[in-house]
Design goal:
This protein has 326 residues and is an alpha/beta fold. The chain has 14 helices and ten strands.
């Protein structure tokens, strides 16, 4: 199994992540790629020390800064493990779960391994996130269950490496929010799934600099727009014979990102230009797919109200959101 670590200025967190992987007794079953994305701190030095002490397990890959997607792209290209797990450098894994998973993977041969994960709040409690209601540890035809699966999260998925490489899965670079691409570009190619009902990934949340924070969302508005364009282009190019179940799953995922993007715009300073951006985004979605457009109404009261009022409610709703996300 290959772990591909997106590592940019994570000197405060990388040691913890690597320790949680390396400490398992069966770590010879793991390949750890630390993809250093042009860090300006001691991220590379920390990785080099682990590479020296755990030769054949940990490998440092130095590259120019290209953003989160570029680290996953490089990881996919370099990966030699049967399975591929992307993880951010400021998160970590549950070591007991990893030891168990490595043994379980010897009996698994699905394209997608879906796991539970933990959301770990800074200064707060950990929350177990259950991801599926499938029979555990079984190889299941993906087509037969996709309609029962809620939108899968980046933290929950492990892909067959060969599937990613063969189908040339590649994410946008120099861009935030490409998790959506990683979760949706694979859907047409997944044939089988196995659900493993325990949490491996420990997702740290509550850091002010995170892209999902209110400040981060305002800062990276352009990235949200870029990903929206890429996802809609991907949707328009779906094969005509794609199943209805896969198509609806992809529609739900794209609707979720587009809703996130509009709500991010609503966190920005009130302006005519910002209102125009919201209207242009909405128009682009509706032009591509009326189904995606309708799904967004059910995902966000803000989006539904903006549309219902012909965007006349923009000022009132925006001031409310700006106040509550300052």
């Amino acid at each position: 199994m290959t772990f591909s670590i997106a590592a940019y200025n994570v000197e405060k967190y990388l040691d913890k992540l690597l320790k949680t992987i390396i400490c398992v007794p069966n770590n010879e079953m793991v390949e750890v790629l630390v993809v250093n994305d042009g860090s300006k701190d001691s991220t590379a030095q920390i990785a080099k020390e682990y590479e020296k002490n755990y030769a054949g397990v940990v490998r440092l890959i130095d590259k120019e800064n290209g953003g989160h997607g570029s680290t996953i792209n490089r990881g996919i290209k370099e990966a030699k493990g049967k399975y591929f797990k992307a993880i951010d450098g400021d998160d970590w894994v549950d070591s007991e779960a990893l030891e168990k998973l490595l043994n379980d993977l010897t009996q698994i041969d699905s394209d997608l391994v879906l796991m539970d994960y933990k959301t770990c709040y800074e200064g707060g409690d950990d929350v177990l996130e259950k991801t599926a209601k499938l029979e555990p540890q079984k190889t299941i035809d993906f087509e037969s269950v996709i309609s029962t699966i809620d939108y899968m999260r980046y933290h929950a998925v492990i892909y067959r490496t060969q599937m990613l490489q063969k189908n040339k899965i590649r994410l946008d670079e120099h861009c935030f929010y490409v998790d959506s691409e990683f979760m949706l570009f694979t859907i047409p190619f997944i044939k089988t799934i196995t659900y493993v009902p325990y949490p491996l990934y420990c997702y740290r949340i509550g850091l002010g600099e995170q892209s999902v924070s209110a400040a981060g969302r305002r800062k990276h508005i352009t990235d949200g727009d870029r990903v929206e364009e890429r996802l809609l282009k991907f949707y328009r190019k779906l094969p005509e014979n794609i199943s209805q179940g896969r198509k609806e799953y992809i529609e739900n995922g794209i609707a979720a990102h587009c809703t996130f993007h509009i709500n991010s715009l609503m966190m920005c300073e009130e302006s005519k230009e910002n209102k125009k951006k919201i209207m242009m985004s909405d128009k682009r979605v509706k032009k591509t797919s009326n189904q995606i457009y309708k799904k967004m109404n059910k995902m966000s009261r803000t989006v539904a109200m903006l549309r219902y009022t012909g965007y006349l409610s923009y000022t009132v709703l925006q001031r409310y959101k700006e106040k509550n996300n300052a």
